[in-house]
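Reposting from the mailing list since nobody answered there.

I have sequence plus structure tokens for a pair of proteins and want to know whether others read the tokens the same way I do. The first protein:
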Amino acid sequence: MVYTITVHMTAKSDPESIRKLKNKLIEASRVYSKDKETISWFVMQDVFDSREFTIVERYEQESSQQYHLNNPYWKTFDPYVIPLLAKPMDLRRSEELDTSKDVTVD
């Protein structure tokens, strides 16, 4: 089952914080997408509020996250990102549902 982490972030309202966060997330996606057992590492910016960002990390399984956390880049991420945020990150962990089979909806 695919293990997914979704992270919502709100940048501080100044344009420099928004720019820096956006660029760091793009860089992070390019680095983390290459990690072993990482299916995808997407970053998105809200279309209505440029301060709002979302990361969707998809791994082959929960234990695959170890490659992400052991990547040397990980140590640079939070120290750079956290000062740019208006509030703490909202992180959610999920397992994707199997949609390959028909179901009956009562």
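The second protein, same order (residues first, tokens after):
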Amino acid sequence: GGLGMMQLLRFTDTPVGSYDELAVLPGAFDTPVGEQGRRGKMKQNSRITAIWVSQKDTCWNGELVHFRGVGVNVGTRHLARFKFTPPDTSPSPSCPLKIEVFPEDPSATEPFFTATIQPMRWLPSFYFSSGWASYLGKDTSLAQPPLPKGDTPELCGTDQWKRSEPVLYGRNTRLVWIDMKQPPSESALQGDGDEEGDALLARNQKNENWWPGMKRWQIGLWFDNAALDLGEPEILG
């Protein structure tokens, strides 16, 4: 349940330099530690369940190297290649922005994520802060479980649940249309009748808008020169 979203960010000023990031927050999940919710039930919080980045240094404990030097457990990060068309990433009503995310392997030619952003015509930009949700009684905090240890040094594990309240804000925010139609897989189009090809084709057809059940056209927010404050993490349990 809860509000689900995807976030595509282009960081320009962080302790590890600039990088691109795609994060998936499918909705609210039960948090088995910390205070209880209503009627003695588990409290629910948003959670990042998948995250891809363009730079290896950002993989240290998925934000162990954090703006305040304290990890917030935002999830194990996976390296990927990002492509923006046009490359200046400044969409206009007459020039949409296409984003493609590819596997880390340089030989991979098919993106696993594609989206095209088109600003809504005739609507001016405005100031927006995700912190306003609290005035509507909405809890936007993230509660992330301990991270498993990976096979490389930067993927060090953790053993604690952590909660934080990130706030994204900016003075130049616009409403945009997002086309989530995914291109057909080349492998599926070339299908040779084997089981693997058939399964790939079925998966491509089932999730034609990337996420199961997602409609093709979505409404989103575009931030120019925004700031992201991850907040001071709270250890739960």
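Reply #1 (J.P.):
I read it the same way you do. The CA atoms of residues 180 and 216 lie 5 Å apart.
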